[in-house]
Amino acid sequence: MGYQDLYERSMREPESFWAEAAQLIDWDRPWERVLDASNPPFYRWFSGGMLNTCYNAVDRHVISGRGEQPAIIYDSPVTGAKRVIRYAELLEQVARCAGALAALGVEKGDRVIIYMPMVPETIVAMLGCARIGAIHSVVFGGFSARELATRIEDARPKVVVAGSCGIEPNRIVQYKPLLDAAIDLTEYKPEHCIILQRPQDPGDLTRGRDLSWSEVMAGAEPLGCVSVAATDPLYILYTSGTTGQPKGVVRDNGGHAVAMAWSMAKVYGVAPGEVYWAASDVGWVVGHSYIVYAPLLTGCTTVLYEGKPVGTPDAGAFWRVIQEHGVSVLFTAPTAFRAIKREDPNGEHLERYDLGGLRALFLAGERCDPDTLGWAERMLGVPVIDHWWQTETGWAIASNCLGIEQLPVKPGSPTRAVPGYDVQVLGEDGGPVQRGDIGRIMIRLPLPPGCLPTLWGNDQRFVQSYLSAQPGYYLTGDAGYMDEDGYLFVMSRIDDIINVAGHRLSTGGMEAVLASHPDVAECAVIGVTDQVKGEVPLGLVVLKSGVQRDRTAIGSELVALVRDQIGPVAAFKTVVVVPRLPKTRSGKILRGTMKAIADGKDFRLPATIDDPAILDEIATALSTTGAGKAP
Ligand code: COA
Ligand code: AMP
To answer: Average of pLDDT values for 431-447?
Structure first.
């Protein structure tokens, strides 16, 4: 069946469509209802069904004869380590980890926070939780102690599993002191921390609370899988909202497993046994879905790469990994290709490697600029597929589905809606806009399996953030248009979220940090165009009257404050002191206008602007920063 027919079928008869897809998963007990629509706007998939995600990702492959097949290839240029973990070994480790967690009192429904670098033990810990029905919440290593503390407070984990350190090309990041500082900040205290002591920088263990990973694993009794309801949560993944308080996106077990397995076959066109590489981080949704769950649920080999696209050691790093491990499909963010292109514009490193096994490159995480897409196509000679999704959905909303039918590529577009997603572009009045006109991109409910059923412990915020803008629709937060052929063009966010090197960050969260500085009266953070990272944040601050201190010193303090309070991943490096901020007559700060000025783009003078002369002052101040060179 071609794309159009399959898409229409998914819209016409979603229940039989997804019931058929669910055959890719082994169920302990079949579902009673494919789609439970008894409590709108909350929808549940496969209610009544029972399964175990870890069983589907590991055990069943060993039973069916894949025990000797590599499950994980760990390739770490930052430490020089390489390791192959076969499915049989993964099963042994995951069963032990489940036993270790259970011995510490972790039971079905309990939360476990995982604050780990890109090492195989991170995957073992995630699957160990899934095995006993515990809910994991992985926190990205580039976040600060304060961000970790917020997540500990919200998720209330019985146990935290952490690495002693992460390794960045330029430094060792000590995770253990960050973890200790986070627990000092929280009112809720986890009972235990299991620390993976890395030889590069082992941490100090707190007596009575901390245990070493190797010791608990050595002493653990392997455990089998606990059957859970399809609708039970598998994990929580926190993502930036429009306030400093992150949103705990919940993922269920059943719908997620089905969506992961189906998407691997139909979106990526990948078969069991193939080598799949998502060059991202396990701390992000791409890592959850396509480093861990989708490849393992499918019986593929997943590559776990602890390194960067450039500098570890050079811009040929990705090509080496593809050749050495026989990668069929690569998935990364456009920023990684921009970084490679900047260092090796003519693709000289490519000449050293044979990429004959590579079938396709998928890009997501941010808008893919046509230049980067074209460069990647020329260099690799394989289809380059831009696809669009978000933490909330867990898998692609729009893509060229290579496993169904390859559609023509239109640069700048992630192609058409994936089967299961009823994507609509709506205007302010709630009605559909004309093809080609920009509007809010929304998805008609119900969302397909795998998408968030709610926010952790906060049904109300889920409804308010996503389902209130237009009854019956999910608000993606992105704006764009659909062309005559049904191709979607995702252009920008409608909120204050920015995308820095494929990482999603809230400018509102950064503004809250800047505003906490004693010398700052008012501030605004905008995302300005950056050649490699797509966007980087830039802070504009107005100082309190009477502040006479050196502005450079205040700027450095503010940069350090954001790094300390949010984390290095925010890449917040530039602050400009301005005499005042441009506002509308009702007092709304004109962030969009300042962004246009910073990026050197044309803009219309807002009719409601309070005092247009401020814009010249802003332009002068921004001209000193070198901000805004197009990627
Ligand atoms: N633990 C601790 N610190 C981390 C970290 C981690 N897991 N990951 C990143 N950081 C730090 C970096 O060291 C850097 O700190 P610095 O300011 O001291 O240099 C900062 O966070 C920003 O990191 P990053 O966004 O990775 O930027 P970079 O300049 O080091 O590298 C790229 C730029 C483009 C090479 C890099 O962003 C990249 O490889 N991106 C790939 C795409 C990707 O993974 N996207 C995720 C979603 S798909
Ligand atoms: P995250 O939740 O971190 O995955 O970020 C999701 C957001 O990144 C989306 O809402 C978009 O704003 C942006 N995004 C992701 N993929 C794309 C894409 N292919 N094209 C345009 N924007 C994208």
So the answer is: 97
Ligand 2 within 6 A of 535 CB? no
Domains in the chain: how many in total? Answer: 2
Question: Nearest residue CA, atom 13 of ligand 1?
Answer: 168
Longest dimension (CA), the chain: 74
* pLDDT tens profile 509-533: 999 999 999 999 999 999 999 999 9
**Would the CB of 395 count as within 6 Å of ligand 2?**
no
Does residue 189 share a domain with residue 64? yes
From the CA of 168, how far away is ligand 1's center (Å)? 8
Whose C-alpha lies nearest to ligand 2, atom 10? 390
Residue 51 covered by a domain? yes
pLDDT at 605: 79
With beta carbons less than 8 A apart as the criterion, state whether 37 and 278 touch. no
Examine residue 149 and state whether it is found in any structural domain, yes or no: yes
Contact 277, 302 (CB under 8 A): yes
The structure's pTM equals 0.95
Same domain, 281 and 157: yes
Q: Is the CB of 288 under 6 A from ligand 2?
A: no
Please name the residues in contact with 482: beta carbons below 8 A apart, sequence gap of 6 or more: 423, 425, 435, 436, 488, 489
Q: What is the mean pLDDT of the chain?
A: 95
Note whether 136 and 261 are same-domain residues.
yes
Q: Atom 10, ligand 1: which residue's CA is nearest?
A: 142
- Residue 127 confidence (pLDDT): 99
For residues 393 and 409, the answer to whether their CB atoms sit within 8 Å is no
Which helix (H) or strand (E) covers residue 237, if one does? strand 233-239
Sign (positive or negative) of CA dihedral 605, 610, 613, 616: negative
Say whether both 520 and 398 belong to one domain. no
Tell me which H or E stretch contains 161. Answer: strand 159-163
Residues 512 and 475 grouped into a single domain: no
Ligand 2 in reach of 388 Cβ (< 6 A): yes
Residue 276: in which H helix or E strand, if any? strand 275-278
- Identify whether the C-beta of residue 598 lies closer than 8 Å to the C-beta of residue 621: no
d(CA 587, CA 99): 57
Among 480, 515, 542, give the residue marking a domain's end.
480
Domain containing 171 equals: 3-307+387-480
pLDDT computed for residue 252 by the predictor:
98
Is the predicted pLDDT of residue 630 greater than 50, yes or no? no
Task: Kindly state whether residues 396 and 535 are assigned to the same domain.
Answer: no
Query: Cβ distance 453 to 250 under 8 Å?
Result: yes
Among all bound ligands, the one having the nearest atom to the CA of 504 is: 2
- In this structure, the strands spanning 135-138 and 111-115 are parallel
Q: Are residues 546 and 471 in the same domain?
A: no
Amino acid at 68: E
Q: Whose CA is nearest to atom 13 of ligand 2?
A: 366
* 46-50, 277-281, 521-525, 581-585: least confidently modelled range: 581-585
Any domain includes 220: yes
Residue 629 pLDDT greater than 80, yes or no: no
Of the three residues 427, 446, 480, the one that is the final residue of a domain is 480
Q: How far is CA 9 from CA 37, 216, 333, 505, in A?
A: 19, 50, 31, 36
Residue 56 burial by CB count (10 A; 0-12/13-18/19+): exposed, middle or buried?
A: buried
At 243 the pLDDT is 66
Nearest CA to ligand 1 atom 17: 568
